[in-house]
Amino acid sequence: MSFKELLETEKLKLDAIKEPTQRKEIFRTIHELYLKEINKLIEQLNKSQDDQCRTILKQIKEVDRLYLQAKGIEITAHILFSRHGECSSWGQKRLGLSPNAAISEKAAKNMETTNQFSGSLLFYPANQHPRIAISPMNRAMQTAGLVIPTEINNAQISILPFLVENTVSPSGYDVRSKEDMQKLYDRFSFWKSPIQKILLKISMWIYSDEDFKQLYKKRMEAAEKIQIHGKPIILESRANGKPDVCQNLDYSGDKIKDTKAFIERVEQQDCWLFGHGKNFKTFFQNVLGIESDFDYGETRSVYKIKIDGEVSSLYHPPYVMLINQETGKIEGKYTATSSMPYMEKTTQESHDSEIPDVPQVMVKLGMSVSENIQQTELENNRKLISEKPLAIFEEQALETDESEKVFNR
Fold it and tell me: Which InterPro entries match (predicted)?
């Protein structure tokens, strides 16, 4: 039987059973079927070629949809988080001293055909006006230019300074000239930021205006590739008279809050963020309670969802996608861990009884894990029923015992 047929069989059982314990077991079975199906499809994906790869990627999205639908959950938007291509600590970043480091030439070459297959990572059809948000740094721009699906030509494109890398070294600064580096150097206090100050000074000794000219050339090539996929025009006139993407060396906002605010505006469409591993790891850690690192070219899906048409949440499926830096092929990695919505009994008693009895932790959008646990206890004590929180908890594969790694921190 197909996964869809198996789900329909379990749903028929649900329609006939009202006893909470039995319903819980059915939901547990549905969850096990989902994990097995995803694991199977990931294995097939990693052995597939070309058209077969596209078909399997679409099947994975459909399995996600069927699974959530079986639990009475509606998908309202789909977010992709992609880390840039290979930019190694020594090869490109030069131990952090190479300013605004680009991806490796080999990775750029190997990802030249990735955009022929990446459209299958979308949940909505490509003509649904997807949103694309990109860090203005070279390596993120280059990756976006290579990975954005060829079939997208009507996207709403944004170059966003809050996606710039979290860093203490020049390789992670959005600097585009020696003047930019001097500006940052003058801003840092040796007593408060000695490492940043020292690294910037060394970098200014080593790198010249010619290095920045080469970076500018790569950035403009990437901007040209990106621009064909949508609007508005991403280049603007800079003080030096040359066109360039936006830059904000004075940004001092909260990157997590700004990222949340951006994706909260996405409705009934795909949104693809191209950025940096440190930033995305911090976002997933603080918002979703997921602590794993992003590999080069790693792409994670997050679904915006609604429970019973009311409570908004996020769902991260039990897999990640990887753009192989040696081949440009899209591969998968099964993680066995997914984030699922949680509804408090005070909101809807009956639905809570149907949630599988698996290890779980509530992580509200906008709080750290520890802050959320304290807030959840407080809300339960007060029995607030009027709020509609954004909430997430972790579901683990039933055959594993790794929940302590996530929940006891």
Answer: His_PPase_superfam
CB distance 394 to 403 below 8 Å: yes
Q: State phi, psi for 113 to the nearest 5 degrees.
A: -105, 0
187 alpha carbon, distance to own chain's centre? 32
Q: Mark whether 105 and 176 lie in a shared domain.
A: yes
* In a shared domain, residues 138 and 198: yes
Give the tens place of pLDDT for each residue, 359-377.
233 333 333 333 443 343 3
Verify that 374 and 268 share a domain, yes or no: no
- Residue 170 CA to residue 95 CA, distance in Å, equals 10
Q: pTM of the full predicted structure?
A: 0.84
Could you say which DSSP state residue 316 is in? B
Q: The domain containing residue 398 runs over which residues?
A: 339-409
Helix, strand, or coil here: 246?
coil
d(CA 25, CA 279): 38
- Tens of pLDDT along 51-96? 899 999 999 999 999 999 999 999 999 999 999 999 987 678 877 7
Q: Which residues contact 330 (CB under 8 A, 6 or more apart)?
A: 45, 53, 57, 114, 117, 118, 120, 121, 321, 322, 323, 324
Predicted confidence (pLDDT) per residue in 111-128, tens digit: 999 999 999 999 998 778
Domain total in the chain: 3
d(CA 371, CA 350): 27
Count the neighbouring beta carbons within 10 Å of the beta carbon of residue 129: 14
Q: Is 346 exposed, middle or buried (0-12, 13-18, 19+ CB in 10 A)?
A: middle
* Centroid of chain to Cα 53: 21
What DSSP designation does 376 have? H
**Domain boundary pick from 23, 45, 71:** 71
